[in-house]
Amino acid sequence: MRGGERQFIGVLTVPNWQPGMAPEVLPPVYRDIVEVVADAPGPVRAKQIVPRIGLPAETGKIAGTRSKLKRLVERGRLDEDTPGMFTPARHRRAVSPNSR
């Protein structure tokens, strides 16, 4: 390692969802976001989540939270059926078009 360079190999901060995996495996801010989305009566936007996790409603904080929300969707923790609107993941099993 030179100077102040860091290398991280094999580190996945936000793990992919698996059955039985508790939210406690997530970093605190991601866990907070998942809890806010789970407690909401319907789909929520990043700008609605920001104040609920204790951040100021500034453009940069909203954009950063939106990025985290997208990561949670990619990892199977949340769904985004409508662009920008986030809900808890439904974890449906994939169904083959040929299955009956």
Q: What's the helix-strand series?
A: HHHEE
What count of helical segments does DSSP give?
3
**Which radius of gyration do the C-alpha atoms yield?**
16 Å
pLDDT < 50 runs, ≥5 residues = 93-100
Structural class: alpha+beta
Helix content: 25-40%
Largest sheet: 2 strands, antiparallel
User: How many beta strands in the DSSP annotation?
Assistant: 2
Principal-axis shape equals: globular
Question: Whole-Å distance between the termini?
Answer: 56 Å
Mean pLDDT: 85
Spatial arrangement of strands, main beta sheet: 1-2
Approximate strand percentage = 5-15%
Kindly summarize this structure in a few lines:
With 100 residues, the protein is an alpha+beta fold. The chain has helices at 28-39, 46-52, 59-74; strands at 78-82, 85-88.
Describe the structure.
With 100 residues, the protein is of the alpha+beta class. The protein has three helices and two strands; from the N terminus they run αααββ. The protein has helices at 28-39, 46-52, 59-74, and strands at residues 78-82, 85-88. It has a two-stranded antiparallel sheet. A hairpin with a 2-residue loop joins strand 1 (78-82) and strand 2 (85-88). Helix 2 packs across helix 3. 16% of the residues are buried.
